[in-house]
């Protein structure tokens, strides 16, 4: 619950849905399991990434996106709290940036669970 965008409901849902975090090798694999990674449409060495794959647990994905939406609303008011998200909002549309933040949140959640530590925000 110390991760921005994850409250008690999301934390308990992740704890209930993920029995063993060691079944994922990385945070990217965990985010892909949730369906939060872009679907590739690549050929000939040219990378083309589409929308999210939407595979996996829709309830967890929805909770993470709703939490990321709440964080993005605060970022739009005060950009100094999450500079990465503020820079992303300058380049991308709000909904795309929100899903990207949800992806990042899922990766951070995996790292916290895999290491058995609490979230420590990086100071700017």
TrEMBL record:
<protein>
    <submittedName>
        <fullName>Transposase</fullName>
    </submittedName>
</protein>
<dbReference type="InterPro" id="IPR047650">
    <property type="entry name" value="Transpos_IS110"/>
</dbReference>
<dbReference type="Pfam" id="PF02371">
    <property type="entry name" value="Transposase_20"/>
</dbReference>
<dbReference type="InterPro" id="IPR003346">
    <property type="entry name" value="Transposase_20"/>
</dbReference>
<feature type="domain" description="Transposase IS116/IS110/IS902 C-terminal">
    <location>
        <begin position="1"/>
        <end position="75"/>
    </location>
</feature>
């Amino acid at each position: 619950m110390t991760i921005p965008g994850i409250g008690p409901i999301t934390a308990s849902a992740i704890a209930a849905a993920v029995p063993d975090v060691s079944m994922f090798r990385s945070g990217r694999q965990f985010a892909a399991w949730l369906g939060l990674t872009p679907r590739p449409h690549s050929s000939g060495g040219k990378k083309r990434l589409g929308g999210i794959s939407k595979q996996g647990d829709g309830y967890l994905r929805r909770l993470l996106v709703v939490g990321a939406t709440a964080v993005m609303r605060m970022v739009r008011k005060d950009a100094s709290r999450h500079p990465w998200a503020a820079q992303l909002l300058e380049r991308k549309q709000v909904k795309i940036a929100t899903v990207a933040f949800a992806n990042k949140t899922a990766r951070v959640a995996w790292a916290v669970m895999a290491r058995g530590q609490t979230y420590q925000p990086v100071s700017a």
